[in-house]
Amino acid sequence: MKAVEIFMIRKSFARNSSEKIKQEAEDLVNEKHYQGYRLISVDFDIADNAGYIYAFITMKRPNTY
To answer: Residue 47, SS3?
Structure first.
């Protein structure tokens, strides 16, 4: 069983996309927190050539050491 799980959110780069992906990341973190996950890190990245903005969320699974 893996102790750490990484979630990825991808959005097309458009007007207000940074706000939308930030809100989705926050919602995912809150949802997983209530399931017992613990947040390790959140990283946002922009792929200029592909036109996407990404959020990578690393969380520790419940009941793992």
So the answer is: strand
